[in-house]
Design goal:
The complex is a heterodimer of chains A (363) and B (163). Chain A is of the alpha+beta class. Chain A contains 12 helices and 13 strands. In chain A, the strands form 3 sheets. A 7-stranded mixed β-sheet of chain A has the order 1-13-12-11-6-7-10. Chain A has a 4-stranded antiparallel β-sheet with strand order 3-4-2-5, sandwiched between helices. Chain B is built from 7 helices and 5 strands, in the order H-E-E-H-H-H-E-H-E-H-E-H. Chain B is globular. Chain B has a 5-stranded mixed β-sheet. The chains are: A alpha+beta (363), B alpha/beta (163).
């Protein structure tokens, strides 16, 4: 009796060893050095699906497979593992190992009213997907361990495979970052400040709404992104740091772009316009209808990864996407944390890293 | 803290999120303020950020180094600073922060603990007059009658043990 138990335990440990080959990949998408520009993904998309140990037993007679599956599903459904198939190669998935000791499995099933004569009492422990896989690459790994349901999300697949944007869109992203780099250079020279630049862009209008640059030598909170956010506020008749009258150029409101940066309009005239919709109505409700509410639907391009303060400022401002070039050791989107993925927050934006990285690092 | 509360109430009267804040340096109030998010159309204009600007102006006027002032400032704020403000204040090496109620939506401790990534030197304590601070927030978010007795306002997530 003891020796047979021993054998079972041995076979159990081999099956565990077999699945340890399923190792964690180091290719986390937040490693910015490998490709030019890519999404910074939530941890649950760059890591493998977590696993859980479950008991599995052979079905004594292969003719009874469907009978056994129906019986186990009705007597003992496992709510948290509904993404898994119940049977594989004449083996049936019983329940998570945490529920009872191996020696008590059949007793446990009997108490639940399951006819254990359907099983061969050759219980093994197998590691399976604890949660439903979110992307194809995760699915392919866990499906080998135990068959698993998977519903592919096309948008997520494009994000993780770095195929969200076509070449025209990429060209536009690069242009916007070029502008941010020009802003960084011009402001850095003019104000003798750190060369960090930011551009807030309206993708619908294909137009630069506002720019920002580092002024931390005057005020420690005047990071480029914070200044850009305030300049967006200026276009909506607000702003705390700079109050400027509306300036209308080519029927667009360019008050988010300080006068010293008007040279950008000439430089990029061929591809990108400058300014945002003119809101004639000072009534707030009308302004909301225009879509001009904080940074809603806007993209931000920042030469350097925004810090934690700026990352959260962009959450408050309801920005749609953030692109940055160079990583920063105080960065809050990729390096220290991923502020855009904090689940309890009311707004989340997508982040792309490594856009014109070399040029941004060289600033 | 009572002065911070007068600014929070002023925010509520002006249809801003009711958060008030003061910065104290050498027993002197050098900055006081409230949220001005709607007024400025800038979602980052929290009471603390406005006070930081006040300190810069104060230091410019007196020709003193703001870095040193920030490192010796005590902040009294009616609501736990949000993630953005917590990061800003930790970066300035603020000496201490005393806040009222927790901030369930954006709190720099409650929603995401900024201290785990920024290693601050700032001493942070919360829970002082939390009930009043939370009652003000509830009034703002629910648009309830400001003169309703506070006992009827349900208050959750108050940790008075923190003080």
């Amino acid at each position: 009796m003891i020796s047979s138990k021993r054998r079972k335990l041995d076979s159990m440990s081999t099956s565990i060893n077999n699945v340890t080959e399923y190792s964690k990949t180091d290719e986390c998408a937040s490693d910015c050095s490998k490709v030019l520009m890519h999404a910074v993904l939530p941890d649950d998309l760059c890591e493998d699906t977590p696993l859980v140990e479950v008991y599995v037993d052979d079905i004594s007679d292969r003719k009874n497979i469907s009978k056994a599956v129906v019986a186990i599903n009705s007597t003992f459904p496992v709510q948290e593992l509904l993404h898994l198939k119940r049977v594989r190669n004449g083996k049936v998935l019983l329940f998570p190992k945490s529920i009872c000791e191996l020696s008590e499995v059949h007793q446990f099933l009997m108490k639940k009213g399951f006819d254990t004569s359907l099983l061969a009492n050759n219980i093994q422990i197998v590691r399976v997907a604890k949660l439903p896989p979110k992307i194809k690459s995760q699915y392919e790994k866990v499906n080998k361990l135990w068959p698993c349901n998977f519903h592919s999300n096309k948008y997520l697949e494009r994000l993780v495979t770095n195929s969200l944007f076509d070449e025209n869109e990429m060209e536009l992203h690069r242009k916007c970052m070029e502008i941010a780099i020009d802003v960084a250079k011009h402001a850095g020279n003019k104000y003798n400040s750190k060369k960090v630049g930011a551009v807030v862009f309206d993708p619908k209008l294909k137009s630069v709404v506002a720019i920002g640059y580092d002024l931390t030598n005057r005020n420690p909170c005047k990071h480029a992104a914070m200044v850009a956010i305030d300049n967006v506020a200026v276009t909506q008749n607000g702003g705390a740091w700079d109050k400027r009258e509306q300036v209308i150029v080519n029927s667009l409101n360019t008050s988010g772009i300080p006068k010293d940066f008007e040279f950008l309009r000439d430089k990029y005239a061929k591809t990108i316009s400058f300014g945002c919709h003119v809101s004639n109505d000072t009534d707030d409700c009308k302004a909301f209808e225009d879509g001009a509410y904080l940074c809603t639907n806007y993209y931000a391009y920042v030469t350097h990864e925004p810090c934690v303060m700026c990352a959260m400022a962009l959450v408050h401002s309801r920005i749609n996407k953030v692109f940055f070039g160079a990583k920063s050791k105080i960065g809050g989107l990729c390096t220290l944390c991923k502020a855009q993925t904090i689940k309890d927050l009311n707004h989340h934006y997508e982040v792309f890293c490594g856009l014109l990285e070399r040029e941004c690092i060289n600033l | 803290m009572e002065i911070a509360f007068t600014y929070a109430r002023d925010a509520l009267r002006n249809q801003e999120v009711p958060v008030g804040c003061i910065f104290v340096y050498n027993n002197e109030i050098i900055a006081k303020g409230r949220n001005t998010v709607n007024e400025t159309r800038n979602a980052t204009r929290h009471a603390e950020m406005n006070c930081i600007d006040d300190v810069i102006a104060y230091c410019d006027e007196k020709s003193i180094e703001s870095k040193y002032v920030f490192e010796n400032v005590s902040i009294y704020v009616t609501v736990e600073p949000c993630i953005m403000c917590a990061a800003a204040l930790y970066n300035l090496k603020i000496k201490q922060i005393l806040f009222g109620c927790r901030n369930d939506r954006f709190g720099g401790q409650t929603v995401f603990d900024v201290s785990t990534v920024l290693n601050p030197v700032t001493d942070v304590k919360g829970g002082y007059r939390a009930d009043e601070a939370m009652a003000l927030l509830k009034e703002f978010y629910k648009g309830t009658n400001p003169s309703a007795p506070p006992s009827k306002v349900k208050i959750k997530s108050i940790d008075t043990k923190l003080v």
